[in-house]
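ugh ok fine here u go
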Amino acid sequence: MVLRVYFISTTGRRDIRKGQIHVFSVLSSWKYDYEAIDVAAPENENERNFVIGTGKKSEDGKIVLPQIFKEEKCCGDYLDFLNAIEHEKLQLFLKQIKEQEFDSIIQKTANDETKGKFIL
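structure:
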């Protein structure tokens, strides 16, 4: 299953450019396979229309890039990505695991941490 990152190469906004670089570097460092799609490229008009139609919109109804998708399903935008990293839920955010799997991993981790500790 393919992760797709919709980005824009022709932005003058520093925050968007830095966010895109951050997404690419995190995904690469964790060795996730992903496809980067530049919505500014004329040959990507269909992809641009797709992300406009199905991407996460901001409060004012605009699409803010980068947008991350798994197949045809939107995972979220850069702020959602940052939130997932902060709360250690990146795999869940990227739809690599399901909520039930995530919960069982958390439970197993909690059980492993309590083993070997003395309770007075």
